Amino acid sequence: MTEPKHERIDEQRVADRAELLPEEVGVGSDDAAAQARIVLEDSDARTEDPEQTKAESSQTPDRQP
Questions:
Q1: Residue 21: which pLDDT band, with cuts at 50, 70 and 90?
Q2: 45 to each of 4, 16, 30, 50, how far by Cα in Å?
Q3: Considering only 2-6, 19-23, 40-44, which range has the smallest mean pLDDT?
Q4: Does residue 6 contact residue 44 with C-beta atoms inside 8 Å?
Q5: Fewest CB atoms within 10 Å of the CB: 22, 24, 34, 42?
Q6: pLDDT tens digit string along 38-52?
Q7: How far is CA 24 from CA 28, 29, 32, in A?
Q8: Computed from CA positions of residues 28, 34, 35, 40, in that sequence, does the dihedral angle turn out positive or negative?
Q9: How far apart are CA 35 and CA 17, in angstroms?
């Protein structure tokens, strides 16, 4: 059994994303690598199953209550 793509986070991607963006530098990060891993997992899940994540999102504009 293979794990979903979003569960296989490449360490190079984590290292690349752990470099703070200009808007993140001001507030900093206690653990940039952990933060990067979470951002990438969320991004991969949204890419892998956009309809499911859209249904689960509280930020989806056309979400029906």
A1: confident
A2: 9, 19, 24, 8
A3: 2-6
A4: yes
A5: 22
A6: 999 988 888 887 777
A7: 6, 8, 10
A8: positive
A9: 9
